[in-house]
UniProtKB/TrEMBL annotation:
Gene3D superfamilies: 2.20.25.10. Belongs to the UPF0434 family. It comes from Streptantibioticus ferralitis. PANTHER family: PROTEIN PREY, MITOCHONDRIAL (PTHR33505:SF4), ZGC:162634 (PTHR33505). This is UPF0434 protein P2L57_08630. Pfam families: Trm112p. InterPro entries: Trm112-like. It comes from the Bacteria. HAMAP family: UPF0434.
Length: 83
């Protein structure tokens, strides 16, 4: 169950307090600066540092390297241009 965009815009990484990207494919929030992914379970984001998973280079590339605008491929949305 995806979380609403309005809620996603309010959420921040618990470690660096920066914005998070939403990955529709894995239903998770992603911090590209730290390469940490936070799960969303039953529509509830689990923004606990100890529950985040580290993302490897290939998955990081999928999440940020191929994103292009508002209709990003692979279900990735809300990608700021600086990543």
């Amino acid at each position: 169950m995806p979380i609403r965009k309005e809620l996603r815009e309010l959420l921040a990484c618990p470690i660096d307090k920066g914005p998070l990207l939403y990955d529709e494919r894995s239903d998770a929030l992603y911090n590209p600066r730290l390469r940490r992914r936070y799960p969303i379970v039953d529509g509830i984001p689990y923004l606990l540092a100890d529950q985040a998973e580290t993302v490897g280079p290939a998955e990081h590339h999928r999440l940020v390297g191929r994103a292009a605008g508002p209709a990003a491929p692979d279900g990735l949305n809300d990608v700021p241009a600086r990543y």
